[in-house]
Amino acid sequence: MSRLFNFCAGPAALPEVVLKRAQEEMLDWQGRGLSVMEMSHRSDEFVSIAEQAEADLRELLKIPANYKVLFMQGGASSQFAMVPLNLGGKGGSANYIYTGIWGKKAIAEGKRYLSSHLAASAEDNGLTAVPRQEAIQLSADATYLHYTSNETIGGLEFDYIPETSVPLVCDMSSDILSAPIDISRFGVIYAGAQKNIGPAGLTLVIVREDLLDQAKPEMPTMFSYKTFAENGSMYNTPPTFAWYLSGLVFDWLKKDIGGLDKMAEINQRKAQKLYAAIDDNDFYANPIAPINRSIMNVPFTLADSTLDKVFLQEAEKAGFLNLAGHRSVGGMRASIYNAVPEAAVDALIDFMTEFAKTRG
Ligand code: PMP
User: Fold this and answer.
1) From the CA of 30, how far away is ligand 1's center (Å)?
2) Where in this chain does the record put each Aminotransferase class V domain (predicted)?
């Protein structure tokens, strides 16, 4: 068996020790004679797995007691509708900071349920820098302010948490768990699992308890945060295996990595050296303002774009998978989430240097 270096933006690389542990436990979980996939979600076994995962996540992110953690489905894309449905019961308007493609989708979907207002935009700088705090202008009727802390396609990441007088809602799909964060600054945080949390199929929502009573009355039961909060995310059958595997990832972050401070240190090191390799070589370029360069997703272009295909082919031959940029923007992108080892980044830098030398 040889596992290659995987730079996929999502579903993304998982820690090898997690996959091995899941493999060991696959047929017979802790001597109970069945797989986690075959357990009733209401069994003592699965409830213990679910509770441990939540406890570990709470410890990692230091989630205050007045926040609920919800294990939902539908991906982050469903949250584009669930947020206005859950918070917009009293009307008002959803305010947005626009910094890229995912935020744009959130705005387009949200408009169907609540009026919307663009509080700040990175459009005028070509989506290369995050609007500064002073530029954020809430509407008088703002119900909440939504932003995307890390735009996965553009590789544009907030370097600060916006200050606001209304609840702050954040799509943290591609940078949650990459570094410590002050949860108490937020009303709602949501994230698709398939990057830094676990496998696809699970959507994590962290919501402040006082926001659970603001839903629109016509709300479908299964889209309601309150339904999930009141039923321990088990109103219906949850994605049990994805929940279990995410728990193994949280355990890895705690025990093998040593927590989010440590994870952030490693992530910074990985990103800094990759950006340095891009900046130091005229053959490669990244357009993002240095302060807003994503530590998780590193897009880059080649000086000669006719070589894009060759670059990707040779990279794959050399064992580097999924380096193509998003289909909407082209170019290259290396997603270097928590589970992508530093050795993978080092090897990629060597490959890029060699490619530029021979083809550039
Ligand atoms: N928001 C961000 C920041 C993302 O990166 C993605 C997925 N790449 C999404 C939302 C959509 O997530 P999902 O596929 O889970 O709906």
Assistant:
1) 34
2) 5-348
Structure ipTM:
0.99
Average pLDDT for residues 207-236, to the nearest whole number?
A: 97
Residue 248: per-residue pLDDT: 98
Is residue 102 part of the annotated active site? The answer reads yes
Catalytic residue among 56, 68, 195, 270: 195
This prediction has a pTM of 0.98
For the domain made up of 259-359, give the CATH fold: Aspartate Aminotransferase, domain 1 (3.90.1150)
Average pLDDT, the chain: 97
Give me the pLDDT at residue 145, please: 98
Ligand 1 center from residue 195 Cα (angstroms): 9
- Domain-wise residue ranges, the chain: 21-256, 259-359
Class of domain 21-256: alpha beta
| Tokens, residue 117 | 């207002």
42 is in an annotated binding site: yes
Interval between CA 192 and ligand 1 midpoint (Å): 6
Contact 75, 152 (CB under 8 A): no
20 has catalytic annotation: no
Residue-wise over 170-183: b if at least 16 C-beta within 10 A, else e? bbbbbbbbbbebeb
